[in-house]
Amino acid sequence: MKYSDLIDLPKPGTYNIGLVSAKNSDMLKYFGHPVLDGKYDPKGKCMSPNDPEFQKRVASRKVGPFRATGLLPALDSLKSIFERVEREVPDLYPLLRNNGMLCSRYTRIKGKIGPGISNHSWGTALDMFIEGDTEKQGDNKVQRGLLILANYFNAAGWYWGAAFPTEDGMHFEVSRGLLAQWKKEGLI
């Protein structure tokens, strides 16, 4: 058994229990646009946030087996998640790879751009893979290691993109409920 092996997507209702994906309306309510005037690249290319107020809310840090750039409370949450993974699944931990977190752009689903704004734009979403093998969006297969990770992310209030209408098993994002909790705690 390898953590990078592709397995069938688990049945709906076995993950993301009680979690809801944060919508663009949630993100805009809490943060506004990370890109001034909401002018994202029409071809879906990654942009760095250029809103000075939003830039104060992000940083780059080592969060576990890699560095990530994202929203400050999201980075703290990732550090806690990966500390737990390192303790409980130590042979999986060094195989984890980051495929990007902060990337202000429109959504991309099977190569189609938009119309929504990706939650990566605010540094609240992370794409991951195992041992150099990336996931293929929409094939209803996930890497075994990502299924294991989903339990840790869900327990911390992160939503797994495997439940999107077009499966995105490498994608984890801060849930609507976790954003509300951070707002209540004064973290955002």
UniProtKB/TrEMBL annotation:
For this chain, one GO molecular function annotation is:
peptidase activity
Q: Which residues form a coiled coil?
A: none
| Name of the protein this chain belongs to | Peptidase M15C domain-containing protein
Repressor is among the record's keywords: no
Q: Which InterPro entries match?
A: Peptidase_M15C, Zn_M74/Hedgehog-like
Keywords, in A-Z order: Plasmid
SUPFAM superfamilies to which the protein is assigned, alphabetical: Hedgehog/DD-peptidase (SSF55166)
Domain called Peptidase M15C: residue spans: 116-174
Organism name: Pseudomonas citronellolis
